[in-house]
Write the structure tokens for this entry.
Amino acid sequence: MMPIRQVAALLSCVAAIVLASCSWPVHTSKPTPTPMPTPTPIPVLEVVTPTPGPALPPAGTPTPRPGGTPAAGTYVVQPGDSLFTIAARFHVSAQDLAAANHLTDPNTIQVGQVLVIPTPSSR
């Protein structure tokens, strides 16, 4: 068996080794610098002022169709049109517009269809 003094000395050495291993590492070499990325220049875009195109015809103007233009007093149905919006555009009732075009169902108009526009009825 070991004497108490030897055990105490051995424990002191072990404690010193453990404490030494827990200390911060000492660097003897210089760290390698991290390369910085080169900034990419932002392209400068040219400012373009739009030039006005041809003026649009006023709402309700008959729209040309392939093969010629519609006769005066007619309208070519456009996407988004309904019988009621067309009637309002020309200041006629939807019933008069449907009757002038022999429509039994006001929901059956088709894009490109030429409608006869009746003269506005007086109230």
